[in-house]
Each structure stands twice: as structure tokens, then as C-alpha cells.
Design goal:
44% of the residues lie in helices and 9% in strands. The protein is an alpha/beta fold. Strands 1-2-3-4 form a 4-stranded parallel β-sheet, sandwiched between helices. Helix 10 links the parallel strand 3 and strand 4. Helix 8 crosses helix 9.
Length: 243
């Protein structure tokens, strides 16, 4: 709705792992989102009401990874918004494991890649015990297993580690806006968003929202007026809206 108010045509869609695609069609998430994005762009450019030279891609929440992944391979975009930006998920997995205090807490990233595919029972027990104490942890694991069609917390993390922009972020050509919340519980310290920003080689901007006007949370929940104003102002500039 906000995009329409600003004079944009807006195309939204559900891909694998989202909405009815997972709940009705039972098609789980996939990391190679370029194979989802390109057919959408093909459809968009076929419409007479779309300016093929001014198509932007805006991904929200997990879309902060999915949209850049798509734009790394699909180069018909004039602008990209990663909201909030994400580069690689293994860093957050390691952080969560280390905070859990489990016997696997000292694993390195390479260790994790070798350890998790064995579907270790001890690891799964530890995660399930932590889920009983944390509503957020329970939702993260249960939803993650559901949308990725994984049978255990370890299997969920094995697939989750494929969600990475390593070696791919530099392929993005269009101007990119990377956003972050200063107190985003999914990205403490703004590590993932800054990693994405640092690995971009295109025209780029990092926009960090703070608690000054209550916009510090994940995707600026509770402060959408401020959030949309800043993001659409940037988009207007990059797409030459009003010209």
C-alpha cells in the first residue's frame, strides 16, 4: 500500500517456503533464490504497465538475503533493498550454539559443516531442551524445520547454512540499500548487515535505524512510517521518480 501511495506499481508474490506455497503446495524454501526471481521478472517485463528500466527488488526479513541472492544473478533490476540485510547465516548459528552452552559450543564454522550433517542426537537434544525455555527459540526451530522440510534441528541448520552470499554479493550490479535495526534480535551488533554491505561492490548505502524514534527493531516493526519514508526516499532517488 505504501508503494502505491508513492506512485509505484507493486508486484508481490509468494515463493517456495512462503505462504500458501509451503502450506498448500508443500514446496519448501530453497537457497538459490535466483531461480525464483528470474521468472517473476520475466512476468513483470511482459506487462505494459511496467517500465523495464525501473524495476526494483525489495526483500523484507529473510528477504534481506533472498533479494540480494536473486539480484546477484538477475541483472535487470535498477535498485535493490535488503531489509534487513543478511550475508551469511552460519555466523548466527554459531553464535546461538555457543550461547546455548552445549558440548558443541566450541565448534568452528568448518567443524559445524562437518558435524551437523551427522544429525547428532546430543545436539538435537540440546536444542530441543533450549526450545522449552525460549518462545523465540521454539518458533525459530519449529518454523525453520517446517519451511525447509527438515526432520530435526540439526537438519534444519544444515540446509540453513546454504543460505549464503559468499562469493555472490560482488555480482550485484544495481544500486543497493542495506538496512538494519540497532537492536535487531536476529542480527545482534548488526554483524550480518554490515558483512553484506562490506562485500558489495555496487553503488551502496547502509541505513541503520536507532531507538531515537523506536525504529531499532527487526525491519523497524512499530515504526513503519519512519522506515518507509527513508526507504522510499532512497528508492525515489535511484529510480528517478517524479522525473
Amino acid at each position: 500500500m505504501e508503494g502505491i501511495r508513492r506512485g509505484y506499481n507493486v508486484l508481490t508474490f509468494e515463493g517456495p517456503g512462503q505462504g500458501e506455497v509451503i502450506r498448500v503446495q508443500h514446496i519448501p524454501f530453497r537457497a538459490d533464490w535466483e531461480n525464483v526471481i528470474t521468472p517473476v521478472v520475466d512476468y513483470a517485463v511482459s506487462r505494459p504497465d511496467v517500465d523495464k528500466d525501473r524495476i526494483a527488488l525489495w526483500g523484507i526479513s529473510l528477504g534481506g538475503y533472498l533479494a540480494p541472492r536473486g539480484a546477484a544473478y538477475e541483472h535487470r533490476f535498477a535498485a535493490l533493498i535488503a531489509d534487513a540485510g543478511m550475508y551469511v547465516f552460519s555466523a548466527s548459528l554459531l553464535s546461538g550454539i555457543r550461547q546455548s552452552g552445549e558440548s558443541s559450543a566450541n565448534l568452528t564454522r568448518d567443524d559445524l559443516k562437518a558435524y551437523l550433517p551427522t544429525d547428532p542426537a546430543e545436539f538435537n537434544r540440546g536444542i530441543r531442551a533450549a526450545m522449552e525455555k525460549s518462545t523465540n527459540g521454539r518458533w525459530l526451530n519449529e518454523n525453520g524445520m517446517f519451511v525447509l522440510n527438515a526432520k530435526s534441528p540439526a537438519q534444519f541448520r544444515v540446509q540453513y547454512m546454504d543460505f549464503s552470499l559468499e562469493g555472490k554479493a560482488g555480482q550485484i550490479r544495481c544500486p543497493a540499500l542495506v538496512t538494519a535495526g540497532s537492536a535487531d534480535n536476529f542480527d545482534p551488533g548488526i554483524v550480518r548487515a554490515k558483512m553484506l554491505y562490506d562485500h558489495l561492490t555496487c553503488n551502496r548505502k547502509l541505513l541503520i535505524f536507532t531507538d531515537e524514534f523506536g525504529a531499532e527493531s527487526h525491519c523497524q516493526i512499530g515504526a513503519f512510517a519512519q522506515s518507509y519514508a527513508a526507504k522510499f526516499d532512497w528508492l525515489d532517488e535511484k529510480l528517478g521518480m517524479g522525473k
